[in-house]
Every structure is written in structure tokens, then in C-alpha cells.
Amino acid sequence: MTAKINRKFIQKHQTDIGMFYFYENFIVAEIKENVILNFESGRELFQLVSEYYKGILPYIYISNRINSYSINPTEHYKLENIFPNFKGYAIVVYDHINYKVAELEQLFTNRPTRIFDNLDAAMNWADDFINLD
User: Fold this and answer.
1) Which residues of 75-106 are buried (b: 16+ CB within 10 A; e: fewer)?
2) Phi/psi-derived region of residue 34, left when phi > 0, alpha when psi is between -120 and 50, beta in every other case
3) Torsion of Cα atoms, 16 then 52 then 92 then 67, to 10°
4) Helix, strand or coil, per DSSP, at residue 107
5) Which segments of the chain are extended strands (E)?
6) pLDDT digits (tens, 9 = 90+) for 47-96
7) pTM to 2 decimals?
8) How many angstroms separate the CA atoms of 73 and 63, rounded?
């Protein structure tokens, strides 16, 4: 992770699918190369989210797409029902192709979603969004 962070950092976790940085009101996810991210592969992450945000603390999920991986976008609907405190989704992309993929992915979520070209901007949006909520 390359951003300079002055936010309340909680904990970092390495799982089979990637590295996750937990902050007071957002998660920065860096999924490993070639992972197939779906409901089953994300179970350990979901347990961590439940532990840190306890189903009540609002949070934003920031996907820092530094690697190429696959995701089933229709699974966003499942997560929105399981985690009512999941308030928004930020996607950080670093090229035009991934930007287009992220635009398509936005169609499969009912939560506010923004696409960014750098992690700092996504984190700032997450801070602002949670503070407005």
C-alpha cells in the first residue's frame, strides 16, 4: 500500500485471497493476482468484517486493484443483505481497461460507488462519505 495515511488504523490481515487493511470506517483490500473472488473465497474476509465492524459500525470497502483478479459482480447483492452497515464501495484502478470493468461492476450494487485513479482520493472520499452519513 502506497498512501500516506493519517487515519485511525486498526489492523492488517493477510488471507488466502489478499491483504486487507482495516481502518475505523473503511477497509482497503488488495486482492492477490489471479484470485477468483466470490462469496465462498471471501468467507475469511467476511468474518473479519463482522469482527471489526460488528454489524453496526458504518464502513466503506475500498478495492485497491493493484493486481488482476476475477470477481462475480452479482455477489454484491448478497453482501448488501448480510452487511447493512456496508455503506459504499470505492474502486481504485490504474488503467483504462480496469476503469471500464469497474464501470460495469457499478451496475451490480445498490450502494454508492465511486471509481478513482489513486488510493488517497478513495480514502478521502470514504472519510467524507462516512462523516456525511
Assistant:
1) ebeebeeebeebbbbbbbbeeeebeebbeebb
2) left
3) -10
4) coil
5) 9-14, 18-23, 26-31, 36-37, 59-64, 70-71, 86-92, 113-116
6) 999 999 987 899 999 999 999 998 887 777 777 778 889 999 999 999 99
7) 0.90
8) 13
Contact 88, 62 (CB under 8 A): no
Residue 133 pLDDT grade (very low, low, confident, very high; cuts 50, 70, 90): low
The three cell numbers locating residue 104:
460495469
Length of the chain measured in residues: 133
Buried b (16+ CB within 10 A) or exposed e, 18-56: bbbbbbebbbbbbbbeebebeeebbeebeebbeebbeee
- Contacting residues for 54 by C-beta, under 8 A, at least 6 apart: none
| Cross-strand bridge partners of residue 37 | 71
